[in-house]
Each structure stands twice: as structure tokens, then as C-alpha cells.
Specification:
alpha/beta; Rossmann fold; 46% helix; globular
């Protein structure tokens, strides 16, 4: 089996889910306490990251892990409504057409296409379904008594965790995954482990860290990220 594994935020989609959910909550006046807590807590780490006192990995991982706070108290049904709002209002208008074209080409060739991201599993599944993609591998939001608890469950699908979730997914389905013939697409430093695991890594609109690695290793680069203003 040949796999084609696509990161989502920054790769097939040019914005970020945390911003989308923040906008949803502001518009609908939902979870304002947890939204502000999430933003203040993580923005406070920015100067520490710039000063080298907080590693890039810990900072970026915390943004993904703690995104579960934004769902705290939502019922499953309310979560579905939120996911559809994000998809219709944010994701579909901001898809990268060139990357989606590559994804469709993999589907046409009969490759097994999957979204692989540190984003919430339930949101990824909704995005994948809306785009006609069969598989989505993320980090699951914890649910108790029909409501999201505000925590994640299971390993975070970032860095080497992305490789681990793909390997576990393939084992569970008895898929004979040929890593040497498979493809991976990602935009950031958290994608490097998965990119170096496959035979065909592609850096998509890469950040400065991934771009440097891609150039050093001779990986294909698709698109160029706009410089920060």
C-alpha cells in the first residue's frame, strides 16, 4: 500500500483552527472564559520562546494539546455544529488549491490518502468527510457523559507522534504500508519526523526550520510562505 499523508493547518489549509474556534466563540458568545484562558496562557509563552527559555517543541505542542480547552463543556451535538461552522466559514474559503490538486492526484492513482495532524480528531474527521478524504489521524478530544471535558486523550500527533499514529493506524487495519514508496506533506518543524520516514517527502509552504531541512536534504518544496510582517 502506498500512503499519501497530509498535514492540515498550513498545508492544505492556510489558516489555523485555534483562530477559527476563537472567532466562532466570539461570534456566538460561547466559552469566553476558556478562550481567553487559552490565548493568555499561550501568548505568555511567546517571549519565553523568543528568549530561548521555552523550546519551540514545548511551545507548539502546548498550543495543540491545550486546544481542547476551547471545547470544554460542549455536547457532541454542539461540537458537530462548531465543526461545520469552521469548515464552511473558514476551511473551504482558505484551502490551498495547488495542494488540494496534488491530494486529488494521489486519490486518482489509488493511493491511500490520510490527514495527519495534531489537531482534534473529531474536527479532522469532519474536515476529511467534507473533502471526500477517507482517513483522518489526529489527537482525540476526551468525552465524558456526552460532553467534551477540555482534555485530550491519547498521544499527541505531532513530531514523532505523527509517525506513531500512522504506524498504529496501519497495524490496526492490517495494512501493508510501503514507507519507501509513500508520500508525506507538511509545512512545519512538527512534520519533519513523518517527512523523513517516507520515500517522498514534500515541504509545503514551509516555515524557516522545515525549509532549511528540506533544502539541506534535497526534499521537494511546494509553495513559499509569505514573510512575517
Amino acid at each position: 500500500m502506498i500512503g499519501a499523508f497530509f498535514d492540515v493547518v498550513g498545508t492544505i489549509y492556510s489558516s489555523a483552527f485555534w483562530r477559527d474556534i476563537r472567532d466562532h466563540h466570539q461570534e456566538h458568545k460561547r466559552n469566553r472564559f476558556w478562550t481567553w484562558a487559552y490565548l493568555i496562557w499561550h501568548m505568555a509563552g511567546w517571549p519565553l520562546n523568543l528568549a530561548g527559555l521555552l523550546s519551540d517543541r514545548r511551545w507548539y505542542d502546548s498550543w495543540a494539546q491545550d486546544m481542547a480547552w476551547l471545547f470544554r463543556g460542549f455536547t457532541i451535538e454542539e461540537g458537530e455544529e462548531l465543526f461545520q461552522w469552521v469548515i464552511e466559514q473558514r476551511v473551504k474559503p482558505n484551502l490551498r488549491a495547488d495542494v488540494l490538486e496534488v491530494l486529488r492526484d494521489h486519490q486518482a492513482q489509488g493511493h491511500t490518502v490520510a490527514l495527519v495532524s495534531g489537531s482534534p480528531q473529531q474536527l479532522l474527521e469532519a474536515v476529511a468527510s467534507s473533502l471526500g478524504i477517507e482517513h483522518a489521524l489526529g489527537t482525540a478530544l476526551e468525552v465524558k457523559d456526552g460532553r467534551y471535558t477540555g482534555s485530550m486523550t491519547g498521544p499527541l500527533s505531532m513530531n514523532e507522534g505523527k509517525v506513531a499514529v500512522v504506524e498504529a493506524w496501519a497495524r490496526q487495519r492490517n495494512l501493508d504500508l510501503d514507507w519507501s514508496k509513500s508520500f508525506a506533506y507538511g509545512d512545519g518543524r512538527g512534520d519533519i519526523y513523518l517527512l523523513e520516514r517516507v520515500g517522498h517527502p514534500v515541504a509545503v509552504y514551509p516555515d524557516e526550520v522545515l525549509k532549511a531541512v528540506a533544502e539541506e536534504r534535497g526534499w521537494q518544496i511546494l509553495g513559499e510562505r509569505e514573510p512575517r510582517k
